[in-house]
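Hi R.,

As promised on Friday, here is the backbone we talked about, encoded as structure tokens. Could you run it through your design pipeline when you get a chance and send me back a sequence?
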């Protein structure tokens, strides 16, 4: 986006000047503006040129249909979004209404506009609220998933999805869009596809989608691999290990590796000579996975065990990630750790991350209340500028400085005391826990003190809207994980404003961005409110990134406390500076981790785009005869290059392996490679000629070709995806040995992709020639793959 703040103000002024003109129009005249704008775009006018009139028209429509006239700050937010940037708008400033104007403008081209939310509740709510005004202005609007009252067991047809995605405006979730993209590219016929090229998207809570979830790929699994019995063996082994003696663990960098002693213990335990030899690679991989499960994956933080199953948690907001597994076998390692039934390890058929998904759009924009702290990363990684939108009313919320405690127990008791005090004053309190586990502990403490409250965490997310709706009532106490930082606004009940508004109390040290999100739940639209965070030196955020000096300081105070000194709350400028530097260090580590993930994903993205483009050509082609001929030539050439000299026995074996099982003898006296190649191609043509006789017409022949080609492509692509998933795990450890992991990953990924192309070609030839075909009782083609 190239707009300056001055240009935004000028556009706002133009839009405001058009208010009397739009207000004077009849309903029919205002509706007719949509046709006028569309005609202008067809005649070559730019979106920027018609923006003032289109925004003014939609603004007036919002007023007539919804009874809400967007404020100037909302119009400014809409301008920023329409130009492909991020609008930072505080909680309660009306992002839902703001989006109507840029969505309307960008949908006028006929190429579609989307608004993507973190969950289906918000998408469904916004679509239901705004559908009347869009339809009043002559646009179609849909959600990208079945409505809440629809039977979820009913499979949505491609035709239905095509209707949704062909709507002028679509409200959907980021995860739905990701899976739909993957399934669309796995379709076996044009009739099964439903997507059109991506045009314009507004990402609600853009930081959650493009930062917090940037490293979590969305995966479609294929057939299961053979299950290994090493998961339980490796888990039992790592339980015998001791830190420093058998492995080194750098908590601040989330790194670990076996010591010489640990390597020898592994070789003794598994009765092998060399842990790092090729034949023992899988043993080493399972040991590393087991260590990762024990050291990095914490129950109640990264995952929960629900009804005997390991379910991942979204650390950013505490929500369950149902149906999602950690890749490369880590999920099974966690299951072994928790002694629950191991799920099948499945090959990856397709995967994509949010950065790659939204990179497919012509224009991307986003909204959030807290993004400025990450403006450098957004600009560098996504080329997205951030523009703060002023609040309509001044923010009068008081953000008190954090209270620092030595231990977790001291911190929680002080926070509970403050909750009781505020509750007795009649103020509503939002008490935020750092994890699901901690939210349950806090809930028990409150019950012990007789404080009635609601708990909002991954276990009762279905009640989220109801709990949030009541969280602003007089005397209400709500215990929640970080999920309370986003979503439905907390509106104050009668009399609460006079008592001081909502009080947000945090009980964990968090990143600056998440801290601002949670604090922003109070003081919406000029309401009063307060926020304060209670942290301790035992918080996970602190302990995982502490310097040695900070650790010594903690141990010193802890020893004094154990000796009887009364040390509860601690403070001091050096301590606060150290904690601020720690917060910055963790933020940098997070950005670096996302950058590394994006490097791996960039390699996969290039391969995925190339593969899907070629696959789409096969899908769309009306005649595949010429392409099949090229496959035959390349396949025969590849087979003949396997050896320099071919006698009759070798040639017969090649024919029986790749062309026909029925040939009992081959032509003799073929002297040159060209003669052999021509002879084999003649055999191929004869086999295909016989297969064509089984079919009714050329259309079925093309269907046969398409089915065989896609089967080969998809099978090889699954193997390639599986290889790349494993490759990431291996190369992550190579920098410790001084290797350039990025270079090695790119080199091996490129080499494997070239080999995949060769395998696809050969598999197509084999499937074309060796797979039996017949027509069923309905004269439908059936291909029997070997």
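Update: got your reply. Pasting your designed sequence below so it's all in one thread:
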């Amino acid at each position: 986006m190239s707009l300056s703040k001055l240009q935004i103000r000028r556009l706002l002024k133009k839009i405001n000047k058009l208010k009397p003109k739009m207000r004077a129009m009849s309903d029919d005249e205002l509706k007719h503006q949509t046709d006028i704008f569309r005609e202008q775009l067809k005649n070559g006018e730019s979106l920027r040129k018609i923006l003032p009139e289109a925004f003014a028209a939609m603004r007036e429509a919002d007023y007539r249909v919804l009874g809400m006239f967007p404020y100037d700050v909302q119009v400014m937010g809409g301008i920023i979004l329409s130009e492909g940037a991020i609008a930072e708008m505080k909680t309660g400033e009306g992002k839902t209404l703001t989006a109507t104007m840029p969505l309307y403008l960008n949908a006028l081209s006929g190429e579609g506009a989307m608004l993507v939310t973190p969950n289906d509740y918000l998408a469904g709510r916004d679509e239901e609220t705004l559908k009347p005004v869009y339809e009043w202005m002559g646009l179609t609007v849909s959600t990208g998933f079945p409505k809440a009252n629809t039977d979820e067991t009913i499979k949505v047809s491609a035709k239905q999805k095509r209707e949704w995605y062909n709507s002028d405006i679509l409200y959907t979730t980021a995860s739905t869009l990701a899976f739909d993209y993957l399934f669309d590219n796995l379709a076996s016929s044009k009739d099964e596809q439903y997507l059109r090229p991506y045009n314009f998207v507004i990402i609600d809570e853009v930081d959650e989608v493009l930062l917090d979830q940037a490293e979590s790929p969305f995966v479609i699994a294929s057939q299961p691999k053979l299950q290994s019995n090493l998961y339980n063996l490796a888990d039992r082994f790592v339980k015998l290990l001791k830190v420093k003696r058998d492995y080194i663990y750098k908590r601040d960098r989330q790194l670990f590796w076996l010591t010489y002693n640990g390597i020898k213990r592994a070789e003794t335990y598994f009765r092998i000579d060399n842990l790092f030899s090729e034949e023992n690679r899988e043993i080493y991989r399972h040991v590393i996975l087991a260590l990762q499960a024990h050291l990095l994956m914490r129950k109640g933080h990264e995952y929960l065990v629900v009804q005997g199953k390991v379910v991942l948690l979204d650390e950013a907001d505490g929500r369950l990630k149902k149906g999602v597994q950690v890749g490369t076998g880590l999920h099974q390692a966690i299951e072994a750790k928790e002694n629950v039934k191991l799920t099948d390890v499945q090959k990856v058929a397709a995967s994509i991350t949010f950065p790659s998904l939204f990179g497919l759009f012509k224009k991307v924009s986003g909204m959030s209340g807290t993004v400025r702290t990450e403006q450098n990363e957004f600009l560098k990684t996504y080329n997205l500028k951030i523009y703060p939108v002023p609040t309509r009313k001044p923010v009068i919320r008081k953000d008190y400085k954090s209270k620092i405690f030595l231990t977790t127990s001291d911190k929680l008791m002080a926070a509970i005391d403050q909750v009781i005090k505020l509750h007795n004053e009649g103020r509503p309190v939002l008490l935020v826990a750092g994890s699901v586990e901690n939210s349950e502990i806090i809930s028990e403490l409150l019950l012990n003190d007789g404080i009635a409250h609601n708990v909002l965490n991954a276990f009762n997310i279905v009640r989220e809207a109801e709990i949030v709706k009541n969280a602003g009532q007089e005397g209400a106490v709500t215990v929640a994980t970080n999920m309370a930082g986003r979503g439905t606004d907390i509106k104050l009940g009668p009399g609460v404003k006079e008592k001081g508004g909502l009080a947000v109390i945090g009980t964990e040290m968090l990143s600056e961005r998440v801290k601002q999100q949670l604090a922003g739940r109070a003081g919406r639209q000029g309401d009063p409110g307060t926020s304060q965070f209670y942290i301790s030196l035992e918080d996970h955020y602190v302990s995982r990134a502490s310097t040695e000096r900070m650790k010594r300081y903690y141990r010193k105070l802890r020893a004094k406390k154990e000796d009887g000194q009364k040390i509860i709350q601690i403070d001091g400028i050096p301590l606060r500076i150290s904690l601020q530097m720690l917060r910055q260090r963790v933020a940098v580590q997070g950005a670096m981790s996302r950058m590394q993930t994006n490097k791996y994903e960039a390699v996969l993205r290039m391969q995925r785009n190339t593969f899907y483009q070629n696959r789409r050509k096969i899908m769309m082609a009306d005649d595949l005869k010429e392409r099949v001929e090229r496959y035959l030539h390349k396949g025969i050439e590849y087979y003949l290059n396997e050896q320099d000299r071919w006698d009759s026995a070798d040639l017969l074996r090649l024919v029986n392996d790749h062309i026909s099982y029925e040939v009992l003898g081959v032509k003799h006296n073929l002297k040159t490679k060209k003669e052999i190649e021509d002879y084999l191609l003649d055999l191929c043509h004869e086999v295909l000629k016989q297969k064509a006789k089984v079919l009714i017409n050329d259309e079925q022949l093309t269907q046969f070709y398409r089915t065989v080609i896609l089967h080969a492509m998809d099978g090889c692509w699954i193997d390639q995806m599986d290889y790349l998933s494993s490759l990431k795990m291996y190369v992550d450890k190579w920098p410790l040995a001084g290797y350039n992991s990025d270079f090695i990953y790119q080199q091996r990924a490129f080499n494997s992709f070239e080999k995949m192309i060769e395998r696809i070609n050969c598999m197509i030839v084999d499937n074309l020639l060796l797979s039996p075909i017949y027509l069923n009782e309905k004269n439908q083609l059936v291909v029997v793959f070997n």
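One thing I noticed while checking it: The first strand starts at residue 86 and ends at 88.

Thanks again,
M.
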